[in-house]
Amino acid sequence: MIFKRTMSVGTLRAFLLLTICHSARRCLASAPELHQPPTSIAVVGAGIGGTAAAFYLRQEFGPTVKIDVFEPGDVGGRLATARMANQEYETGGVVIHPLNLHMKHFVDKLGISTRQDVPSKKAVFNGSELTFEESDWFIVNFLRMLWRYGLNYLFMQMWVESVMDKFMRIYQYQQYGYSFTSVERLLHAMGGDDFLSLMNHSLEETMRAEGFTQVFLNDVVSPFTRQTYGQSVRINGLAGALSLAWADSGLWAVDGGNKRVCSGLLYHSKSELIPARVTNVSFKVRPSKTGLSTGFYEVTYVGDTGAGHSTYDVVVIATPLHQGKSDISFSGLSSPVVSQFPGIYHQVFSTLVHGVLNTSYLGVTRPASEFTVSEVLTADSKDNIMYSLMSVDPVHAPAGYNRPPASHSKVWKVFSPRALDQEDLRRLFLSWDSVSQTPWLAYPTYRPPQRQTPPFILHNRLYYLSAVEWAASSMEMSAISARNAALLAHHRWHEQTGRIDREDLHTRLRGEL
Fold first, then answer.
1. Contact 339/330 with Cβ under 8 angstroms?
2. Measuring CA to CA, which residue among 211, 202, 210 is closest to residue 233?
3. pLDDT tens readout for residues 139-173
4. 20 to 30 Å CA-CA from 447: which of 159, 183, 229, 241?
5. Distance between CA atoms of 36 and 207, rounded to whole angstroms?
């Protein structure tokens, strides 16, 4: 919101190592004799996780394997847009962090243009008035924060920086082909016991232990967690730290909509898109020519043309299996898949409104033409009907685009815990001509301690991407999980155990040198 954070020495070193050693991971040790690659792989779900999985599976298994991606809806999943006032606007994930290296790699590889986030000003609303409003002047913002909270905001930036430095380690591990069988093992490779502690303690507990004041948590930290996850500072510390990273500068998005990354990855992976809903995954055994039995998965699905089924050597589930998110059943497995994992997904409503904002509802007394705030974050108060209010720009802004002032009709996005009714709209807007409301089960309800996360491996060659969301949910976390699943599937297929659940990367690198 105020301070601009630069890449630290540790982060820069990780980035340079990733760049220099782009192809080096195969050179760490001579690989054992490879088996024949699988003949067919199924990916269930065509969101960012599923399409990234198809991309990485193609990279790991080569050009001969057949990859089918099942998706009953639009490619992109929770990355979606809606049309309003003759323009397209994001209804799902809006911006991408500058240190999200997988997402950066995708757009570079696919040749997709990016659009820099239009500069914005933030304010915090407590349900009756604005308790903070950014100035155009850095020094004014700095002095306001210093007067109210001492050095808390600066220390928060430093704390988030330290978490991000550890987070960046996963790129080194994955570049050298390391994979992990559980969320806990993956997190431990990133940040050791500290990251496991973050996942099992609330952000509030964690930051209080670091010396942050409760007033600062209520006034500053909580509005960011509400904007990102629609939840309070009682979410887990890792998800909370990543949500605070979105206070950073340099955020960006994809020109034409972030969902373009998904369609691009699908095309680049040379996968076949099957527009159907998967209803069952069954493990079966059949005899082979050698006399030994071999196992395979039968995927049953329903599409516009009716029901069907196909067989696969490997299956990757890239859609949440929690209650309310999926009705896929599993059969024939030696140990049953728990399709209804503990925990629930958090309900949030994303509402696009093309209209004129009622600035007086926010307690603003000056003319609307002078109100230049574009992001209204909210405090955790029973009087607030929303998590956040944002002025949003079209996914493809024409040359010379300028964000209209609040006195003009433009598109606003409201995140709220319930559907907005006509009375809510009348309170928030003086007038409007179109409304588009989308209910989302976008991310888990975070209630630490998270004693056990869903597994990455559901069965021998059956993998699950959405397990990672129980640590934190974002486009980049899904991409990390997709990369991990592809590496895990490759190593286990070829019986290469040397880079599964190992944290000896730096030791091995020193040995190579």
1. yes
2. 202
3. 898 899 999 999 999 999 999 999 999 999 999 99
4. 159
5. 50
Confidence bin at 13 (pLDDT 50/70/90): very low
Type and span of the H or E element at 490: helix 475-493
> Where exactly are the structural domains of the chain?
81-95+105-151+216-257+344-444
How far is the C-alpha of 472 from the C-alpha of 203, rounded, in Å? Answer: 12
Burial 74-103 (b: 16+ CB within 10 A, else e): ebbbbbbbbebeebbbbbbbbbbbbbbbbb
Confidence of residue 489 (pLDDT cuts 50, 70, 90): very high
Q: Give pLDDT tens digits for 96-131.
A: 999 999 999 999 999 999 986 677 899 999 999 999
Cα separations in angstroms, 155 against 158, 283, 414:
5, 52, 30
Query: Distance between alpha carbon 396 and the CA centroid of its chain, in Å?
Result: 22
Share of the chain above pLDDT 90, in %: 72
CB 378 within 8 A of CB 386: yes
Quick: pLDDT tens for 324-349.
778 899 998 877 676 567 788 999 99
DSSP state of 485: H
CA 424 to chain centre: 29
Are 465 and 318 in contact by the 8 Å Cβ rule? The answer is yes
Q: What is the mean pLDDT of the chain?
A: 89
The upper half-sphere exposure of residue 179, i.e. CA atoms within 13 Å in the direction of its Cβ, equals 24
CA-CA-CA-CA dihedral for 260, 261, 262, 263, to nearest 10: 50
pLDDT for position 383: 83
Query: What does the alpha-carbon distance between residue 464 and residue 171 come to, in Å, rounded to a whole number?
Result: 20
Q: How many CA atoms lie within 13 A of 290 on its CB side?
A: 3
Q: What is the DSSP string of 263-318?
A: HHHHHHTTPEEE-EEEEEEEEEEEE-TTS-EEEEEEEEEEETTEEEEEEESEEEE-
Alpha-carbon 284 to chain mean position: 34
CATH of 81-95+105-151+216-257+344-444, one of 3.30.410, 3.90.660, 3.40.50, 1.10.3470: 3.90.660
